[in-house]
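Possible regression after last week's pipeline update?

I re-ran a chain I had predicted before the update to compare outputs. Posting the input and the new output here so someone can diff against the archived version. Not blocking, just want to make sure nothing changed silently.
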Amino acid sequence: MSNTVLITGASSGLGLAFIQHYVSLPSTSRIIAIDIAPLQPSTSQFQNITFFQADISNDSQIRSIASQFSTQPINLLIHSAGIRGLNPQVLAAQQAANQPGDVAAAETYSAMDSTTMLRTFSINTLGTFNAITSFLPSLLLASDPKAIILSSRMGSVTSNVSGGGYAYRASKAALNAVVRSFSLDVPDVAFLLLHPGRVETGLVGWKEEGAMGVEESVRDCVKVIEGLGTEGSGGFVDRFGMEIPW
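New output (post-update):
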């Protein structure tokens, strides 16, 4: 079977690790990669990768890309693009003072502002909506299509027992609501909200305590993706396939 895979956030972190996994599979005929940053030279050498440099929150850019594939089936969408929603001024002050990176301090209610909140929603929530709506016609042309949206346990309202994380939590909770609605409105596509775990990526400028490598996370995530069918559409799970409360 020949599959076309679309991956957003493709130039780094989990998106890049997913590319490295799927490009190695004989069943992958083409990878469509999207990111606002240039593709890594290590992956741009592969002839079956078609890369587009675009902003996932810019609907006209994403729809323009999607129009090039409107008559071609896409079997798997992995939406990895996103940001952490930290106040850049707080991060800059930490760096200027040679302080250790402190994520929590950059996302408290006193550190948060409307600019950071809106930018985080624009990329994490609106970007997800753009990716799905733009490429939905191609997904519907495939047999057993899947749309995997990388979410976060921090988007679980039930699991929020520590507070903070205002922009990121809210944007991921909204993302979850968007994808849940798609799973009900488009039953022919298997949608999944997948929490990849605490992973060492470019979401923050340093390695967080307890963060795993992207390869370990992707290895587990792929098993969950492979086992997904329409009966599991709309689920919110971790990288082991265990349900996360809303």
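Follow-up from reviewer: compared with the archived run. The first strand starts at residue 3 and ends at 8. Marking as no regression found.
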